[in-house]
């Protein structure tokens, strides 16, 4: 991994995008086990339909984890100072999620050079599912 350099990074620079395989039931079951989040809306089609949904859908935290992967493919996880998201849409079965990010600010804090990155997940229809941001020390 080539580490970004504070002097070379410019506001507007983008992180290399991360595109995942389409969301499927196996992924949801594995994430439920790994996260200990067995909410029926994510794994039980009958429950999801009773709740008015056409089928189960992905955990929001799964997509946040994908954004975390986007960040850690760019920098070492020890450089992440802040990371947060806002869930704005449902990620359904079959959605192919692409994670993107771009630098919106360069600054110094606590004796470190840092950048703020805006983050986004979108499906194959370019519909935003999650918006977020992170602060990274460079």
UniProtKB/TrEMBL annotation:
Q: Which domain of life is it from?
A: Bacteria
Q: Name the UniProt key words of this record, in alphabetical order.
A: Plasmid
The UniProt entry's coiled-coil ranges are none
Q: One short Pfam family name for this protein?
A: MaoC_dehydratas
Key word Iron-sulfur present in the record? no
Q: Where is the MaoC-like domain?
A: 22-118
Q: Report the protein name in the record.
A: Acyl dehydratase, MaoC-like protein
Q: Which organism is it from?
A: Cupriavidus metallidurans (strain ATCC 43123 / DSM 2839 / NBRC 102507 / CH34)
């Amino acid at each position: 991994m080539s580490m970004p350099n504070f002097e070379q990074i410019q506001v507007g620079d983008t992180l290399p995008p991360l595109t995942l395989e389409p969301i499927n039931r196996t992924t949801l079951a594995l994430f439920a086990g790994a996260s200990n989040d067995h909410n029926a809306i994510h794994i039980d089609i009958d429950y999801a339909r009773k709740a008015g949904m056409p089928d189960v859908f992905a955990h929001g935290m799964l997509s946040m984890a994908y954004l975390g992967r986007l960040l850690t493919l760019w920098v070492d996880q020890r450089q992440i100072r802040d990371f947060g998201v806002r869930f704005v849409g449902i990620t359904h079965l079959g959605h192919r999620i692409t994670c993107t990010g771009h630098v919106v600010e360069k600054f110094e804090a606590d004796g470190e050079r840092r950048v703020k990155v805006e983050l986004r997940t979108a499906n194959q229809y370019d519909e935003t599912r999650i918006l977020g941001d992170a602060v990274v020390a460079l």
